[in-house]
Amino acid sequence: MSPTQTSSATVTVNIVDERIGRLIFSNPTHRNALSAQLLTALDESLAALASQRIPVVILGSEVGQPVWSAGHDIRELQHDHDPIAYGKPLEKVLRRIRAYPGVVIAMISGSVWGGAVDLAMSCDLVVADRSASFSMTPANIGLPYTTSGLLRFFNNLPIHVLKEMFFCAQKLDAERAEHFGVVNRLVDSDALEATALELAHTIAGKAPLAIAAVKEQLRILEDLQPMPVQAMEQIAELRRQACESSDFDEGLAAFAERRPAVFGGR
User: Fold this and answer.
1) In what order do the strands lie in the sheet with 172-173?
2) In angstroms, how far is the first alpha carbon of the chain from the final one?
3) Which position among 60, 72, 100, 142 bears the catalytic label?
4) Which of 21, 60, 114, 145 is the catalytic position?
5) By Cβ atoms counted within 10 A, which residue in 65, 88, 122, 198 is the most buried?
6) Are strands 103-108 and 56-60 parallel, antiparallel or unpaired?
7) CA 128 remoteness from chain centre
8) Which residue has the higher pLDDT, 245 or 191?
9) Which of 115, 142, 149, 251 is the catalytic position?
10) Is residue 30 flagged as an active site residue?
11) Domains in the chain: ranges and CATH
């Protein structure tokens, strides 16, 4: 087991056997928030596992915590008003997971917030216990989500459930998440690790090249979403306006001060 230290955060790599790797991320003082350093460590760890040709990876924080991940480290948003843009640490990790030449299983215990929901949904399979919930909270602070990010939700959720998650920023509980297919296996907490490992061993016993080929085909098919240049430019302008708005500053201030935000739409 080898930890990668990132200030107060760590990413630990555990090779279960020659076919299965465990990636455990931890940022205990900030509810396992996805800081830029933590995301960089995750990206490096996934690249290392890919170079070792590990066909199955189980990704998650420690089981039994109330929060799987609080999403983006809100402290960093004071300096980076668009943390989900192309080339930013979270997007790099999401692309790494989607392009990983094997299966990545998210093992979830506790609540999942913001960008961490995108992290979980970018994995190939999700195993969760009944404490799991999923909350998309960008609207609470005035952050507009990216088209690529919305597409991942669009491919996994009915459109009205997607809109509810993004418009209301309320929790999708474990039972509803299972109902809508976000969660593959929903189990009690004491069975979570065993269930994830059983699924991993099942996949690891199959032909890895065939699975990698199917995964890449599905990734390409999901990405076949043609968009006119004019629409891309329009979206970029809408996102720019939101990221540079007074509402974004108000959302961050309200979060830091633990009070309701008062948005003015400008």
Assistant:
1) 67-69, 111-113, 133-135, 172-173
2) 49
3) 72
4) 145
5) 122
6) parallel
7) 14
8) 191
9) 115
10) no
11) 2-189+208-217 (3.90.226.10)
